[in-house]
Amino acid sequence: MTPSALPLLDQHLRQIDSFPSQVRRLFHGRGQCFTGLEHITVDWLGGQILISLFKEPEAEFIPALCEMVKSWIDIPLWKNNVKSVLLHHRSRPDCELQVLWGTYTAQQSVIENDLTFLLDLGNKQNNGLFLDMRFGRSWVKSNAQNKNVLNLFAYTCGFSVAAIAGGAKQVVNLDMAKAALSKGRENHRANEHDLSRVKFLGHELFKSWGKVRKFGPYDLVIIDPPSFQKGSFALTKDYKKILRRLPELLSEHAQVLACVNDPSVDSQFLIDEMAQQAPEMIFVERLDNPPEFKDINPEASLKSLLFKRGV
């Protein structure tokens, strides 16, 4: 990332004539569509602007960016709506969060698809909600009525919130990060959900199949793993271990939403692995990604694939 590319970012953000009513990505450089800005994103978090850098830029880049931020605040739209502009150094070991302007609020509540999600903005990799999965959560909300749902690698339970809002009978969330599940419980409370319909299992999946089966069979299984989690999950090696256990977890006409967000792994990987490990699962479609996440190579972006049990 070089300072010479910043006018392109400036032009893009100055074209905004109103800020969204709900959380949105405003600029997606990681889709490789903006030369020189491939490692920067800008998100609207309901009054806070979050700029994220995924690679350390040239030394002159950040001072130039700070000067540009000052010019944005002079724009009436920004002056009247923006409370703070934050810079998140995602590539640094401490994931430093820098306040470029305004008042910093670490605990942030945002709205997506009329649901409330609680974010933690600070020195950590992720804030609690992956914005590129917006259409996936919307699909779950529209298709969860009266279903028993299993949410694997649940993180802060975004899919679970969507499922309960959509009328799911029960959602079982599994994630080895208990702190993330605690945030998920808070997300449900923020939406005034009945927590008696939600289970939180803070376990490593591959040691917990018995616990998972206990609450089945499931009408909908959501699999949204990290690409790599040291000591517990490597996508290309371990995804198949999940898929081969699906038949013992699923109801007769169950659906599976299987996701991959690794640029080096394409949709066909999942289609082929599913055909090999759980051949009764039929590929239905790939869900669209939100338009603001345009990628020069669609197979490098998020892949959310829907399968249905063929009986």
UniProtKB/TrEMBL annotation:
Keyword line: Methyltransferase, rRNA processing, S-adenosyl-L-methionine, Transferase
One Pfam short name: Methyltrans_SAM
Residue ranges constituting the S-adenosylmethionine-dependent methyltransferase domain according to the UniProt record: 24-308
GO biological process: methylation; rRNA processing
Origin superkingdom: Bacteria
Signal peptide: none
GO molecular function: methyltransferase activity
Cross-referenced InterPro entries: SAM-dep_methyl-trfase, SAM-dependent_MTases_sf
Protein name: Methyltransferase
